[in-house]
Design a protein that fits this description.
Elements lengths: L1 H19 L1 H7 L13 H5 L6 E3 L6 E6 L9 H14 L5 E5 L8 H12 L7 E5 L7 E3 L3 E5 L2 H10 L8 E5 L11 H9 L4 E6 L1 H8 L11 H4 L1 E3 L20 E5 L9 H11 L9 E5 L8 E4 L2 E5 L5 H9 L3 E3 L9 H8 L3 E5 L6 H7 L3 E4 L3 H16 L14 H20 L2
Length: about 425
């Protein structure tokens, strides 16, 4: 009873702090003795502090691209796609500002300039500034024609308090995943759904994902002419980075497992059980099994048949591409309507990708993207069958070629989107 009393007192103190100083509570919640006493992922809500802004008299048109924190280590597929789009909009003459909304990022102006050059493949890149709305002591100044792109549901939610005071109240919403499904039915789920009712212009990465959004009754842009209102683009896979190997040499066959156990939609458990089911199959005799997907994501694990799943070290972008070229098969579960970039990038190298279907992500659509994508049912048996089919294909010794039906450059993929976004910006700004 004494222990229960102590826990109750601690919870009461934290609730009081949440009411009186939510920002401090967001920092202190990490110290809670038993986080399971709280709703799962409550931290996401408590760390969603307001954006700190002040309104000025500036009348220049400017596009603010929002993220919880623009960081160097966070430049994965989704953020890089957003920045790539922003850079191409900047080339039209519209000023771009990358704004961290929850905490200070470490991607400063100088670093962003170098990163922009690598994304565009150009030396002379448009200037993009980095700013923060995360500190109450240094608020972000907004002018009369500032416009926003939300890149995650939390950044869209932060705009709720700001937009009623802004001359331009419509914003762009970069949708690269169906984010409500990141959560069980919960406070986070409800708030995420709430953002889909806001007044925004959707920019959707992938036609397959767009079709999934059209099926949801709570999305603002669902209904007649929804396809006209949404701005949709197909992702590019840069063939200067992802291309077939010239010669794999005499080395063991290698399977990569995109293993992210803390990211539930990557279905780590199903993939691991499927690997253990096939590890004793003679078709995989002598194969190497390597886990990729994050620094220290998984420990070394026994699979059976004398095989081990060995974690790869953290690699940069070019090293990651080289790891795909050096492998024969990629297993990438994804319980989501989005295809996942690794699936597409592996196919561009001529390797075999195994991933699951999901509602609008049908077998026919995946195979239309590339005959080197093996679509399976999201089950242990489905993934195991896909692995055996992949091993059989590798055993045939067919030369690897790029058969991916997607743009090979982001310039081609994003040019129509840039035109539509800039047209909307000029209309919203009144000229």
């Amino acid at each position: 009873m004494k222990m229960i009393g102590k826990i109750a007192k601690k919870i009461g103190n934290h609730i009081s702090l949440a009411i009186n100083d939510p920002e401090k509570f967001g920092r202190n919640i990490l110290q809670i003795t038993n986080p399971k006493l709280f709703e799962d992922r409550l931290l996401d809500i408590m760390n969603m502090t307001p954006m700190h802004i002040r309104l000025g008299s500036d009348t220049r048109v400017r596009l603010n691209v929002l993220d919880a924190a623009w960081t160097r280590s966070g430049m994965t597929g989704g953020p890089n796609t957003t920045i790539n789009l922003a850079l191409r909009i900047a080339k039209t003459g519209i000023p771009i500002r990358l704004v961290s909304t929850v905490r200070e990022g470490d991607a400063d102006n100088r670093w962003i300039a170098g990163h922009a050059a690598s994304l565009l493949g150009e030396k002379n890149v448009p200037q993009v500034s980095v700013a923060s709305a995360a500190s109450r002591y240094s608020p972000l100044e907004l002018g009369k024609k500032d416009i926003f792109i939300a890149t995650h549901w939390t950044t869209a939610y932060q705009l709720k308090e700001i937009l009623p005071n802004m001359p331009i109240r419509k914003f762009f919403y970069m949708l690269q995943e169906f984010e409500p499904s990141f959560y069980a039915w919960s406070s986070n789920y409800a708030r995420c759904i709430e953002t889909l009712h806001m007044d925004f212009i959707p920019i959707i990465n992938e036609e397959i994902l767009a079709q999934f959004f059209y099926m949801q009754p709570f999305c603002r842009f669902v209904g007649e002419k929804s396809e006209e209102r949404a701005i949709i683009f197909q992702p590019a896979v840069d063939r200067d980075i992802f291309y077939p190997p010239k010669n794999l040499g005499n080395r063991p066959k290698r399977l990569l497992f995109y293993a992210r156990p803390t990211n539930t939609r990557n279905a780590f458990g199903l993939g691991l059980l499927a690997l253990r089911q096939v590890a004793t199959d003679p078709a995989f005799a002598g194969w190497e099994f390597v886990a990729i997907g994050g620094r220290g994501a998984v420990p070394e694990m026994a699979l059976g048949g004398g095989h081990k799943l060995v974690p790869a070290g953290w690699a940069g972008y070019s090293e990651y591409a080289a790891s795909l070229r050096d492998a024969d098969v990629l297993l990438c579960p994804m319980i989501s309507p989005h295809t996942s970039y690794p699936v597409l990038e592996m196919a561009a190298t001529g390797g075999i990708s195994i991933t699951n279907t999901f509602v609008t992500k049908t077998a026919e659509r995946l195979e239309a993207l590339s005959p080197d994508i093996i679509p399976v049912e999201a089950s242990v048996e489905g993934f195991a069958a896909g692995l055996r089919a992949a091993a059989a294909r590798v055993g045939q010794g067919v030369a690897r070629v790029d058969r991916l039906n997607l743009p090979s450059s982001w310039a081609d993929a994003l040019e129509p989107t840039v035109r539509r976004v800039t047209d909307h910006i000029h209309r919203l700004a009144g000229g």
